């Protein structure tokens, strides 16, 4: 049985003690002092020294290391077990990519350095742009956006710039988004100033073409869609969808969060998409972190290149350089050039797999997911709404279990933690009652997949035999059931420690 570490670890500030030091720089020798200057014996000129230390916890190095190691042991991670979070593609991040990104020659460079001293990273960015453009069927990519949602927002800005250049922005204010879409799609469109028009799914879980035709028209700026969609179903009418939107003068945006399913198999550019984002932190196996750092590069077809953010990295035949020659650009969307460490990892991932390896990623992800799906459906009361074949993820409904036992999808997800697995995504997409969205990426072995199936079956059985055990789960984790509403309500959360000495506030 799985048991997570439980440390009752205090805040680091509570470990603080006056005068404790993590690291004391050695006093320089006389000769070093002569070279550096008498003023700079501790490395900082006197004129730049603060008045006293900053109000930070004073702790020794082992205390810091143990504190954060203990906290990490109270967490769940892809390095600990299967993380079947549908839509998020939580796959294992290869250590070779980590080692390359942590090479000091890459890690220590600064974006303000002279271009002549950073030709290597510029070459990498230029090649990554080309790789991703080839993989997606686009013409050029911006590597700046630092998340999928940031890519969507940039995509919407590019749509604005495109319609403005044609003198149609005043009229084209509507962004069409399917009802199965991720919440960031309407949010990004609204932030870019568009009105969101929702188009319903049909009985097969795909965009309802009749409904789409009704809402498309001269007010349409574009359509944002992911394919396969969030139900894991490939939108087989995508060419028809593209035609409907293009005929009306709109643009087609590809939300690449589900690209893992079709990597190396089908290219959004060939499906008729004009603008694409990729979630490198999903498909290209770079770390997700807690809300980042991620990377959501955006690619466009040829005639939209001029709207991409500045600078792109160009090559003049002799050297790589930051290219600011783009009068129609929407401007910058991030400080400097994006999350470079993430871009390096994705570059390493692409090179380590090669074209055949990338194709195998999609094939294995789809196989793994369908293996898990068929085993669960065969042996439990979970249901699979919509009848079409699934790609890299599926959305089960725990509605029947809920009706018969009172146990909810949330309870089942929480119980999974007791079995040493992360919960699937729950209650998304919203068009499925008691939704449980599962993705079993290519990095999982058949033993891991069987463990995942087993967890579903055990939980479904317990719903009948011991529902209270599920409702009060998780039991084996460092933190038990939390108040979900409170936990996601920014006003009631205390996200930072306020130093009572400097701010007069209690922690
Ligand atoms: C379908 C879909 N679109 C967009 C996003 C947004 O991506 P990000 O979390 O990188 O901002 C997600 C994230 O989970 C997603 O699943």
Describe the model.
Helices cover 37% and strands 10% of the residues. Strands 1-7-6-5-4-2-3 form a 7-stranded mixed sheet, with helices on both faces. The mean pLDDT is 93. It starts with 29 loop residues before the first helix and ends with a helix. Strand 11 and strand 12 form a beta hairpin. The chain is built from 17 helices and 12 strands. Helix 3 packs antiparallel against helix 11, helix 5 runs parallel beside helix 11 and helix 6 packs across helix 7. The chain has 3 domains: 72 residues, no CATH class; 240 residues, Aspartate Aminotransferase, domain 2 (3-Layer(aba) Sandwich), CATH 3.40.640.10; 127 residues, Aspartate Aminotransferase, domain 1.
Features of this protein?
507 residues; alpha/beta; Aspartate Aminotransferase, domain 2; Aspartate Aminotransferase, domain 1; 3 domains; seven-stranded mixed β-sheet; three-stranded antiparallel β-sheet; 17 helices; 12 strands; globular; binds pyridoxal-5'-phosphate
Query: What ligands does this structure carry?
Result: pyridoxal-5'-phosphate
CATH architecture classification of the largest domain: 3-Layer(aba) Sandwich
- Helix segment count? 17
Q: In what range is the share of β-strand residues? A: 5-15%
Poorly predicted runs: none
């Amino acid at each position: 049985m799985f048991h997570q570490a439980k440390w009752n670890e205090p805040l680091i500030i509570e470990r603080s003690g006056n005068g404790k030091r993590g690291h004391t720089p050695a006093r320089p020798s006389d000769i070093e002092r002569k070279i550096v200057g008498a003023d700079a014996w501790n490395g900082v000129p006197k004129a730049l020294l603060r008045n006293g230390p900053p109000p930070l916890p004073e702790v020794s190095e082992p205390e810091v290391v143990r504190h954060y190691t203990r906290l990490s042991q109270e967490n769940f991670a892809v390095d600990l077990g299967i993380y079947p979070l549908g839509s998020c593609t939580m796959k294992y991040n290869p250590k070779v990519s980590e080692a390359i990104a942590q090479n000091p020659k890459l890690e220590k460079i600064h974006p303000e350095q002279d271009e002549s001293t950073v030709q290597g990273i510029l070459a990498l960015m230029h090649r990554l742009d080309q790789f991703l453009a080839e993989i997606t069927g686009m013409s050029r990519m911006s590597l700046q956006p630092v998340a999928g949602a940031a890519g969507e927002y940039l995509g919407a800005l590019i749509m604005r710039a495109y319609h403005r250049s044609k003198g149609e922005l005043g009229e084209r204010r509507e962004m069409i988004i399917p009802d199965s879409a991720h919440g960031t799609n309407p949010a990004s469109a609204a932030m870019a100033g568009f009105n969101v028009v929702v188009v319903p799914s049909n009985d097969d879980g795909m965009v309802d073409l009749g409904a789409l035709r009704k809402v498309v028209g001269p007010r349409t700026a574009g359509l944002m869609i992911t394919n396969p969609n969030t139900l894991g179903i490939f939108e087989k009418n995508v060419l028809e969808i593209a035609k409907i939107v293009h005929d009306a003068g709109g643009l087609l945006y590809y939300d690449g969060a589900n690209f893992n399913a079709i990597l190396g198999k089908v290219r959004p550019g060939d499906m008729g998409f004009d603008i694409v984002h990729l979630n490198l932190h999903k498909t290209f196996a770079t770390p997700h972190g807690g809300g980042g750092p991620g990377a959501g590069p955006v690619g466009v077809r040829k005639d939209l290149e001029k709207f991409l953010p500045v600078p792109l990295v160009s090559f003049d035949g002799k050297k790589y350089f930051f290219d600011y020659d783009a009068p129609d650009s929407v401007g910058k969307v991030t400080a400097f050039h994006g999350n470079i460490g993430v871009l390096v990892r994705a570059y390493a991932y692409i090179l380590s797999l090669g074209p055949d390896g990338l194709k195998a990623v999609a094939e294995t992800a789809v196989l793994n997911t369908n293996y898990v799906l068929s085993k669960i459906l065969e042996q439990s009361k979970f249901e699979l709404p919509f009848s079409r074949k699934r790609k890299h993820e599926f959305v089960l409904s725990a509605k029947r279990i809920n009706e018969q036992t009172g146990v909810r999808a949330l309870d089942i997800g929480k119980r999974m933690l007791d079995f040493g697995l992360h919960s699937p995504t729950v209650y998304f997409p919203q068009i499925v009652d008691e939704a449980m969205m599962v993705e079993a990426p290519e990095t999982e072995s058949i033993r891991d997949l069987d463990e995942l199936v087993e967890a579903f079956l055990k939980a479904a059985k317990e719903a009948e035999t011991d529902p209270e055990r599920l409702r009060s789960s998780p039991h084996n984790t460092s933190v038990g059931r939390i108040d979900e509403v409170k936990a996601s309500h920014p006003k009631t959360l205390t996200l930072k420690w306020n130093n009572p000495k400097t701010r007069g506030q209690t922690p």
